[in-house]
Amino acid sequence: MKSFEKTLEVRWSDCDPNRHVTHSKYYDYGAHCRVSFFIESGFNSEKMAELQIGPILFKEECTFIKELKIQDTVRVNILKGEISEDGGRWTVHHEIFNQNGDKCAHITAKGAWMNLELRKLTLPPAELTAAFQSLPSGEYYEYKSKKLG
Predict the structure, then answer these.
(1) Phi (first) and psi of residue 111, to 5 degrees
(2) Mind telling me which PANTHER family this protein's record contains (predicted)?
(3) Which terminus of the chain has a smaller tally of CB atoms within 10 A, N or C?
């Protein structure tokens, strides 16, 4: 698979009293992109239920770079980070851009696969690992502060 991204409109309900997107919505945008990637890779909720597997997160971290506001359109991608050889544990990155192409946020999510019946970590099917491996590579984002004034 080549690059994968979703385009979303910022909704009124995504915004806080400061009139910009609330911090938790950025995480929702990343999750929406991840789940859409699973679906388009052939692993919708019915398939995952059949396989008795589901993704879990150990850590999710967002660096907020530029504010998003109502009426903005956002593009969210998914990029490959570290993926264990067996595909059991993974790291992905999401970049969130506004309609002008400005990078507004960077999310790093670390997770694994859980057997939903046993409630223990498990390995995904080879096709799902291959889908992850086919993503373009991403990297961790390091925030560089600018001088104020």
Answers:
(1) -155, -170
(2) 4-HYDROXYBENZOYL-COA THIOESTERASE FAMILY MEMBER, LONG-CHAIN ACYL-COA THIOESTERASE FADM
(3) C
Q: b vs e for 78-91, b when ≥16 Cβ sit within 10 Å of the residue's Cβ?
A: bbbbebeeebebbb
Pick from 28, 31, 100: nearest CA to 66: 100
Is the predicted pLDDT of residue 105 greater than 90, yes or no?
yes
Q: Does the residue 35 lie in any domain?
A: yes
pLDDT interval class at 25 (50, 70, 90): very high
Q: Two tokens at 98?
A: 């506004």
Give me the domain span that covers residue 43.
Answer: 4-133
Number of structural domains in the chain: 1
Q: What is the C-alpha separation between 84 and 142, in angstroms, rounded?
A: 23
Per-residue pLDDT, averaged over 51-79, amounts to 97
- Do the domain assignments include residue 147? no
The pLDDT of residue 2 is above 60: yes
Q: Return the CATH number at 64.
A: 3.10.129.10
